[in-house]
Amino acid sequence: MKLNLKIAIFLTAGFLAVLLVFVMMPGARPGRDSLVFFTLTAVVDLFLAIYLKKTVVDPVKRLKAVVQKIGAGDLTKRVEVGSHDEIGELSASFNRMTEKLVDANRDLQAKVKELSEEHGRLSSLVESVKLGVVMVDLRLSVILANQAARAIFGKPQAKNISFQDMSDKIKGSVNISQALSYYVHAGKPLNIQEVMIGESYYRLFMSPVRDIVEHIFIGAVVVMEDVTDQKKLDKMRTEIVSVTSHQLRTPATIVKGNLEMVLGGDVGKISKAQKELLDDTYLGNERMIHLINDLMDAAKINEGKLVFPLAPVQLEDIVEEVTKENQAFADEKHVKLVYNQPAAGLPKVNINKDKIKQVFQNLIDNAVKYSSIDDKGRVEVDIQSDDKYLRFAVKDNGIGIPKADQEKMFERFSRGSNSTKLDPGGGSGLGLYIAKAVVEQAGGKIWFESKEGEGSTFYVAFPIH
Ligand code: ADP
Fold first, then answer.
1. Alpha-carbon gap, residue 202 to 191, rounded angstroms
2. Pairing of strands 378-385, 336-340
3. Yes or no: is domain 129-226 CATH 3.30.450.20?
4. What is the pTM of this model?
5. Mean pLDDT over residues 124-139, rounded?
6. Of 65, 204, 211, 419, which is most buried with the most CB atoms under 10 A?
7. In testing the pocket of ligand 1, which one of 406, 419, 450, 457 has its CB within 8 Å of the most ligand atoms?
């Protein structure tokens, strides 16, 4: 029965009972009747109060106690559902709600367990990686630094390191905080080939980190690889190459001198057959001297010692000279070599004449060599200028460079996969590597455009001062 119905019935019944007694009382007198009426009302009200306490106040108190316990986290508690009134319904609803809470809590616990296990696995993985790993936020505060990273920065026992610890110790050509700020905000990765931290060398890989849910950049991860041993090995290799090439150059130069004397008839007449053999020997020796010189230059580049004096030079003079020198080679390969002379005089550029001549020599030689597939080979050389740059270009219609090889074409010993057929003697793959270093040393740029099977154009540009 509903609570307000119960109360209404009780009040009405009490009132009616008292009224009945009062009306039916024979010879009723006002003073006595009023006393009886009030006494009876008080008795009925007392019963009513006891009833209300049992049916309303006590269940509410019990509900309150259970609510407090559940609020404190004890989800095992339930409210006793005694009656079918609103209090009873409220208690039953409350129990149902608590059941749902228990279910939700169980799911939550499982999720939390799963997440903390995953977090644990990730943390152990990052901690046990031999590479130094540091994560910074957008304000360059270090959020995480693994054991290897803390050791690199001299704090193996610390829980974390500060960005200051890092930037103070990293010595290199790039300012680490500027580079990180720029690349993190631009969302671009950056690799720094070499920095020094303490006595060791490191390669740094920096990558912006995106929030996987909101897809916004939230910081960057810096991975540090110790390359000290590789560097030592590289240095040793370079020294061996350098010493060996020096040792080889002297006998090769002696062979060249002696062959020139014999071929020139200085030591007597030689037969046709002897001349043919000696010509081949001479060419082979020339190739060897070329290779030795390239190896020595490459070793110098590696040691950072390829430095030449620069002076103002009229570039078109060199280009004309080199084109003429290559004419015989082009004729031999049935390639048409054309030099498009500039209409007007060009400004001078600050370069090392001999070394740049060697670069142009190599580029024209390559263009002729790699376009001699049939008798339709054509190589065009030109030189142009705008306000800022003087640009040399050599264009051929040869085999081109396969797309897959293009990115590493200026690296040491790099050769296109399609080149060996036209150059069975075997180029060294050092020419472009040296050319890049020589051109860049003079503040210039070298690049190419190429399509396999259609040809290539190599460009070299120098700033006009
Ligand atoms: P080398 O020619 O001695 O191998 P280079 O460093 O001068 O060394 O050239 C490297 C490679 O670049 C060549 O082996 C060839 O695969 C490619 N290459 C250079 N110039 C051209 C060109 N004009 N056409 C096609 N491939 C070229």
1. 11
2. parallel
3. yes
4. 0.65
5. 91
6. 204
7. 419
